[in-house]
């Protein structure tokens, strides 16, 4: 294993080489090398045996590593280092790596949004190609009733809240396909609530189809939604469900898992 110092050249006076070496020792362990001897760690990190021994025994003393005979391995406490990172992340930062993986898999654009008043606001996005006449970026707003993400978030709201929303919102038909009757929208939201996802077919813009799923917090509340959008010329409605729904649901679950870990770690720190 090459150390950061050897890869990046000389460091400034504030660079702590011992920290770099300690992290190199931790990174020497992975799925293919869950247990290593002192000699193997020294060879992997290009440290002397004496230096490798000091780092290993320090990590053992701190509880991040265990020693069994001549073999060293990581202990679960090492996850605290990753949890510290997760607990500092915002929802967009947590979601972005998962969106990138999803887009790479399905070759369609994906976004995350939250409900703000009567609109959804985009907070994260990974595009593939331009499929709308309006450019979408972080901060873009659309009426919730005409979007898959908006409907997922509306469906999670209690009935009394929906009563007020449907009584006050102007369901303007944005295309010839837009659902603009309150009774029809209420029925659709009930269907979405039951099945756990929403599909919108050309209601926001002609030619645009999208499917969305909720992102729930540890209490089960939909705090955001994630979608995949495609052009109607590329995928039929049935193909959207067959090809995109399962990867989308897995992505929503992965984002939720990271959010739950982050919130759990932050909560644990508060009660210590």
Overview of the molecule:
- By secondary structure, the chain is an alpha+beta fold.
- It folds into two domains: 4-74, Arc Repressor Mutant, subunit A; 88-271, Beta-Lactamase (2-Layer Sandwich).
- Helices cover 48% and strands 19% of the residues.
- It is built from ten helices and nine strands.
- The protein has helices at residues 4-8, 17-27, 38-45, 49-62, 79-87, 91-106, 148-155, 159-168, 182-195, 237-271, and strands at residues 36-37, 65-68, 71-74, 109-116, 119-126, 141-143, 198-201, 208-216, 222-231.
- A six-stranded antiparallel sheet has the order 6-5-4-9-8-7, with helices on both faces.
- Strand 7 and strand 8 (208-216) form a beta hairpin.
- The protein is elongated and about 75 Å long.
- The model is unreliable at 1-9 and 265-272 (pLDDT under 50).
Q: Which labels suit this protein?
A:
272 residues, alpha+beta, Arc Repressor Mutant, subunit A, Beta-Lactamase, 2 domains, six-stranded antiparallel sheet, three-stranded antiparallel sheet, 10 helices, 9 strands, elongated, disordered N terminus, disordered C terminus
Question: What's the SSE blueprint?
Answer:
Layout: H1 4-8, H2 17-27, E1 36-37, H3 38-45, H4 49-62, E2 65-68, E3 71-74, H5 79-87, H6 91-106, E4 109-116, E5 119-126, E6 141-143, H7 148-155, H8 159-168, H9 182-195, E7 198-201, E8 208-216, E9 222-231, H10 237-271
Antiparallel strand pairs: 1-3, 2-3, 4-5, 4-9, 5-6, 7-8, 8-9
Helix pairs in contact: 3-4, 5-10, 6-10, 7-9
């Amino acid at each position: 294993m090459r150390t950061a110092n050897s890869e990046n050249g000389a460091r400034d006076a504030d660079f702590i080489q011992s920290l770099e070496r300690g992290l190199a020792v931790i990174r020497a362990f992975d799925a293919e090398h869950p247990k290593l001897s002192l000699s193997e760690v020294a060879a992997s990190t290009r440290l002397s045996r004496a230096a490798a021994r000091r780092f290993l025994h320090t990590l053992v003393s701190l509880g991040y590593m265990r020693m069994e005979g001549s073999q060293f391995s990581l202990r679960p406490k090492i996850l605290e280092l990753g949890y510290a990172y997760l607990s500092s992340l915002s929802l967009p930062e947590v979601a972005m790596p998962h969106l990138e993986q999803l887009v790479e898999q399905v070759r369609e654009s994906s976004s995350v949004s939250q409900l703000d008043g009567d609109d959804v606001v985009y907070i994260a996005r990974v595009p593939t190609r331009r499929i709308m006449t309006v450019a979408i970026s972080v901060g873009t707003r659309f009426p919730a009733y005409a979007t898959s993400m908006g409907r997922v978030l509306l469906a999670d709201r209690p009935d009394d809240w929906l009563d007020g929303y449907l009584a006050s919102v102007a369901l303007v038909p944005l295309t010839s396909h837009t659902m603009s009757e309150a009774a029809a929208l209420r029925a659709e939201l009930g269907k979405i609530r039951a099945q756990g996802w929403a599909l919108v077919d050309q209601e926001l813009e002609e030619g645009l189809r999208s499917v969305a799923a909720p992102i729930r917090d540890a209490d089960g509340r939909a705090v955001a939604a994630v979608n995949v959008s495609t052009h109607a010329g590329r995928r039929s409605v049935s193909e959207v469900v067959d090809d995109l729904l399962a990867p989308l649901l897995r992505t929503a679950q992965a984002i939720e898992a990271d959010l739950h870990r982050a919130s759990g770690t932050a909560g644990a720190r508060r009660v210590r």
